[in-house]
Amino acid sequence: MQPPITRCAIRRGQLWLSALALFALGCGLSDYEKRIDEQKKKLERVDQEGKLIAEPLASPPYRLNEKKEQVLGLPLEFFFRPPRGISRTPEPAPYAFPAKGPNQVFLYRYPTAKPEKSDPKTERPPLAEAIFLTTSFVDDRPEHGLTLEEFKKNVIGALNFGYLRNTEVPVKQMVQKKHQAGPLLFEVVELPGGLIKEVKDPKDAKDTKDGKDAKGKSPKERYLWHFSVCFHHEKSITRSRTVQAAIVFQVPYERRDEETVRKAQDASLRSLGIGDEQDKKQAAYYLGRRH
Prior knowledge:
- By secondary structure, the protein is of the alpha+beta class.
- It has one domain (53-290).
- It contains 4 helices and 11 strands.
- The chain has helices at 4-52, 148-163, 259-271, 276-290; strands at residues 63-64, 70-71, 78-79, 95-97, 105-111, 130-138, 175-181, 184-198, 220-236, 241-252, 273-274.
- It has a 7-stranded antiparallel β-sheet with strand order 4-5-6-10-9-8-7. The chain has a two-stranded antiparallel ribbon with strand order 1-2. A two-stranded antiparallel ribbon has the order 3-11.
- The protein starts with a helix and ends with a helix.
- The mean pLDDT is 83.
């Protein structure tokens, strides 16, 4: 028979063990509930993004270089889900800038997709008019190839001179800022485009030397489009170089500040994968579609 002191010590030890077990069980439940909440929020975010962004864009087809050789449309693969309503495939010919040379940038335009079945009651309007996209390897040393600054300049050139057919860059109308989309940091340049002059009465459309109409009133000017040019670069371990992507959102000028349009752009930017992240995001996306 054990002495009373020994029995008390054993009971005390058993109580401590029970308390520790309950504490551990409580921590385990707390961690489990936390993981469940995180998973629930993730699924809600994925569901919400599914209403804002479309299927991943397809890579551009092969093109002919200056030597008439068939080469990849873009030098770097990417993963990107555009805003709802954008076609998966780009227009055949990219906008190139400069006109020739080793540091050309090829900007591909993905237009609005044509709906398979048009039903005014259920059809949702696209959240962008088009998406432009290009990728490249970049280097800090000009003698080794395209630099970050030259890449940005050439993208703006392809958009401004190639697509918009402007004769000069609208520097005064360009707004530059930084934008954080999830873990990705973007340098953004916003600018208007597609300037047109409107005359309400066709009878007043006669031009005069001072640019005014027949009644002495200047034609009303307005922009058709708003462009958000988003640049992102990162170091690629597998490719041993810096990789760069440019995404351009083209939206009707009057819709540029719509909350849904902005949310769709942000969700699209978060989906971007280039370099080491391209394979990971692509695999995660198609794996998620199986479940």
